Amino acid sequence: MDNSKIGHHISEQFNRELEDIRNKVLTMGGLVEQQIELAIEAYTTGNMEMAELVIKQDNQVDTLEMEIDMECTQIIALRQPTAFDLRLLITVIKIIHEIERVGDKAERIAEMAIQLSGSESKLPHHELEHMADLVKDMLHDALDAFARMSVEEVPAITALDENVDREYDNILRQLITRMMEDPRNITRTLDVIWTVRALERIGDHACYICEHLVYMVKGEDVRHLSQSELEKKVGVVK
Amino acid sequence: MDNSKIGHHISEQFNRELEDIRNKVLTMGGLVEQQIELAIEAYTTGNMEMAELVIKQDNQVDTLEMEIDMECTQIIALRQPTAFDLRLLITVIKIIHEIERVGDKAERIAEMAIQLSGSESKLPHHELEHMADLVKDMLHDALDAFARMSVEEVPAITALDENVDREYDNILRQLITRMMEDPRNITRTLDVIWTVRALERIGDHACYICEHLVYMVKGEDVRHLSQSELEKKVGVVK
Fold it and tell me: For a surface tag, which of A158, B19, B143, B151 has the fewest beta carbons within 10 Å of its beta carbon?
């Protein structure tokens, strides 16, 4: 782990505070990654205890967000940081908000797992698991890039969102066909659609985390850029 | 407009900076309110120019978000505010993010209006307009409360979200019935569902703005509270 950017302060106490915040963000991220994993497993296996656990974990995620948020604000007030340190603290506030929204999506998937339990129409498992793996990877890599304070991997992560969108379109098409073939299953199939949509949104949030990270490290706002514009800004040579 | 909280600084320049930021937030909010209005009108009347305008306006909204965000960060770095002023600036960064996401939802509705143009299945107009009115009111009142830096109205605004959710459930039930009756229209009806869902999410974002506002004014984090807990915190006596 590259601590060069965090561990450079004359005040040991300030170093520790920033390090503590970074660790808490990673704890929060890890928790949400676990939520996604459990939610998808609950969905595919019908394990309702797992689904309930995901819903319970959401409180922990919310509490962590509020804690980190408060700590960042307090540090800004007491230490009056500028330049990179200030960007770091403001970016953390934004990133934890994205992580919290990812947690909400995982909770939603768990709720759909409960709603669909015992149902035969909750397929396609295989495609759904594949899509879940994709967005989990995106989120994991985004958090890893944050931990290393490095933007090098960012374009590779955001590029994956196109695959996620493609998977989403594929699954949606299958589900529409299924609804047409068996209209009695429309309500349940809609629940599957909410699940797939929640996954698709997790991919978006992973991209947002990447954008915040670029701002933190490079001081440049790269939100709302296209993939190729982003690659130029971050300095990727293909 | 109550300027007491903003206009109390010894530095005239600082007062002007904060005032300028508040005005920009309100401009951004007004733009997004207009986007919702135009998007719904495009949807109900089939006016495609209007829909295109909403999509174009999204760039303006994004630019405003980035501008305000940068100004807030610069003021924090230069003025090193504490207490209320710091909370104000950090809250503005959060609030403009919610406004930007509302703009995205309006854009989505405009896209659906384009997709559904010429289609007969895009009803029910009446219910949709009613729901749109509800969430527009919520957003408007939330921005108004921000302009006045007052949390008094917050519980009344967030209480409306229950009505929005009820409307959403009603419309969804109608749309499911329609899909069952005429499975050939499933794809188009799904586009209507996305529209209704975007409206429902706008209501959520209005609630988030309210929560951020309570933190700004009272210094208390009221996210993730139930409506009755929120009322207690904000001090509403029924």
Answer: B19
